[in-house]
Amino acid sequence: MTAATEAVGWTLVHFVWQGALIGAAAALLLVMLRRAPATQRYLVACLALLMCAAWPAAGLVLRLTAPAGPALAADSASGAASLSALAALAGFGAGWPGMLRAHLGGVVAFWLACIVLLCARSVLGLLWIGRAARRGDSDAVWQARLSAMAERFGIARPVRLRIVNTLASPMTAGWWRPVVLVPGTLITGMPPDLLEALLAHELAHVRRHDYLVNLLQNLIEILLFYHPVVWWLSRRVRSERELIADDLASSQSGEPRRLALALSELEKLQFSNHHLALGADGGDLMKRIKHLLQPQPAASNWKAVIGVLALAAACGANVANAHIDADAPPHAAPAPKLEDRAMVDFKSCSKPAWSKPDLEAGHTGTVVLGFLISAEGEVLQSTVKKSSGYPGLDKAAESGISKCRFKPAKVNGKPVESWMQMMYVWQLHN
């Protein structure tokens, strides 16, 4: 085993406890800053992630530049001691550290092989983004809107817009020549003012140069892939970064509620589609919606806030709540005016399951349901107001809504029965 291989091996070993210490310190600081602005938590998470890279890098430099012989032997003894302590805590046998020390070269070889695979995956992802940016469709009207918005954000560089049908949500790529990739379903299926709010969020990333930070994150994830603290910190950085971009976008437009509604619509589109393959996690949209709505005073336009919260709750439950109808079904007595409309408890719901025959046949469609909510918040009955054309999909939608619990509507402060209307969109994406 060469001295360089041994130095790299002991660096990887030492980072096991170093990363744990960094993670514990970061977790404590983040808990203390849980009510602080997202920018402060973002800074803590970024510094902790950088420390995860800097500490082992400094250790590796010291090991490579230290004189061979006694210094390296001392470092080996220190690494064995660290492993012995970890093995004792984990309940492993006493021979485990010695066995790992004997196979240190194999550990380094495995680490390098994993790095090669992860680098190949990242390169393929970058190539896919570059291909999408070159071959994606353009839209002169939306390109003009995006350019005008970029000017208001103070972005001097030209920002391109490309429409990509295989995307699930908008994304930004590039630093010197940034490009915003937008799913085709949003261009055709989302109101223009809500799509503008999503584009403002992407421009906030461009203005903050978040693409460069994300590349650095990917590099640290690749080099230290084996430590869960690195992945936790990286996810936390991305989560806080989304909140900061939301704040910047809403401050530019002056309408945080519009961005919250846009995120709710985006969540609805994602959950109403059945994906045959797993996609990348675009972030906690419910957390972002709550973050945008939280600063709103409770007495300010409360009806509008309740409407947005109802949409957010329905989306978190994987139920596409397009419209709420408080009217009784035909042939019923006129319902009294409701003070508070019924709202879904999203924790009680689950995404409707596709029936196997419909899934295999590729059936798609839209189901509009009307259902009666009791004073106790339970679904008493439901009816299909508009069929998808396939009984299996209609039945699955009714089965899904029957499992939800609701906060009942109120008249004169008392819970009452009320009718609601909800739309399920069944769509297959390859």
General description of the model:
The chain is an alpha+beta fold. The chain folds into 3 domains: 1-85 and 97-127 and 213-247, no CATH class; 136-207, Zincin-like (2-Layer Sandwich), CATH 3.30.2010.10; 266-429, 2-Layer Sandwich (TolA/TonB C-terminal domain). It is built from 15 helices and 11 strands. It has helices spanning 3-32, 38-65, 70-90, 96-102, 104-135, 140-152, 184-189, 192-207, 210-223, 228-253, 256-271, 285-293, 302-316, 356-361, 391-402, and strands spanning 160-164, 171-173, 179-183, 273-275, 343-345, 365-373, 379-386, 405-407, 409-411, 414-416, 418-429. The strands form 4 sheets. The protein has a 4-stranded mixed β-sheet with strand order 4-11-6-7. Strands 1-3-2 form a 3-stranded mixed β-sheet, sandwiched between helices. A two-stranded antiparallel sheet has the order 5-8. The two termini are 48 Å apart. The relative contact order is 0.08. The model is unreliable at 271-282 and 296-335 (pLDDT under 50).
Q: Structural class, please?
A: alpha+beta
Give the overall pLDDT as a whole number.
Answer: 76
Over the alpha carbons, how many angstroms does the gyration radius reach? 27 Å
Give the CATH H-level superfamily of the largest domain: TonB
The name CATH uses for the topology of the largest domain is: TolA/TonB C-terminal domain
Number of strands: 11
Please, how many domains? Answer: 3
Q: Which strand order spans the largest sheet, edge to edge or round the barrel?
A: 4-11-6-7
Instruction: Identify the CATH class of the largest domain.
Output: Alpha Beta
Counting DSSP H or I runs of 4 or more residues, the number of helices is: 15
| Percentage of residues in strands | 5-15%
Helix content: 55-70%
Uncertain runs are: 271-282, 296-335
